[in-house]
Amino acid sequence: MMQGRIAAGLGLLAVLLGAFGAHGLKDLLGHNGTAAIWEKAVFYHFIHAVMLFVLAQLKPVPAVAWWSFLAGILLFSGSLYLLAVTNMLWLGAVTPFGGVAFIVGWTCLIINPPRP
Fold first, then answer.
1. pLDDT digits (tens, 9 = 90+) for 77-109
2. pTM of this structure
3. Terminal CA-to-CA distance of the chain, rounded, Å?
4. Residues 33-74: tens digit of each pLDDT
C-alpha cells in the first residue's frame, strides 16, 4: 500500500512540476534556455511515476523494477530539474545514473515479466 501512495504522490508531483515549469518558472527557464530540459525531466518523471503505480498494484510487487524506477526518477529527473533552474551543467553528469536505473527497471520486467 505504501508503494502505491508513493507512486501516486510522485505522479501528483510530476503534474505540479510540469505546471510550475510552464507558468511559475517560465521566465527563469527561458532566460537559462533550459525549458526543454525541464520538460524532459517532467516527461520521464511522469511516465515512471505511472509505472510505479502500476507495479505497486501487483502482488508481489516487482521490487527491483519498482526501486529502480524510483531511483531513476530521483537521479534522472531530479538532476535535470536542478540543472534547469540552476544552469549548473555539472549536474548533467548525474543524469546518466538515473538513465541506467530506468534501464535496469525495464530490463527486470523483460527478464521476469509480472503477472497480475
1. 999 999 999 999 999 999 999 999 999 999 999
2. 0.93
3. 16
4. 999 999 999 999 999 999 999 999 999 999 999 999 999 999
SS (H, E, C) 16-54: HHHHHHHCCCHHHHHHHCCHHHHHHHHHHHHHHHHHHHH
* Cα(21)–Cα(18) distance, integer angstroms: 5
Residue 4: enclosing H or E segment and its boundaries? helix 2-22
What separation in angstroms does the CA of 36 have from each of 55, 59, 67, 98? 29, 37, 27, 18
Measured CA angle at 83 (ends 78, 87), to 5 deg = 165
Measured CA to CA, the distance from residue 86 to residue 76 in angstroms comes to 16
> What type of residue sits at position 69?
F
- Overall size of the chain counted in residues: 116
Give the whole-angstrom CA distance, residue 14 versus residue 111.
28
Q: Which residue has the cell 537559462?
A: 32
Q: Which three cell numbers stand for residue 74?
A: 530521483
Is the distance from CB of 10 to CB of 45 less than 8 angstroms? yes
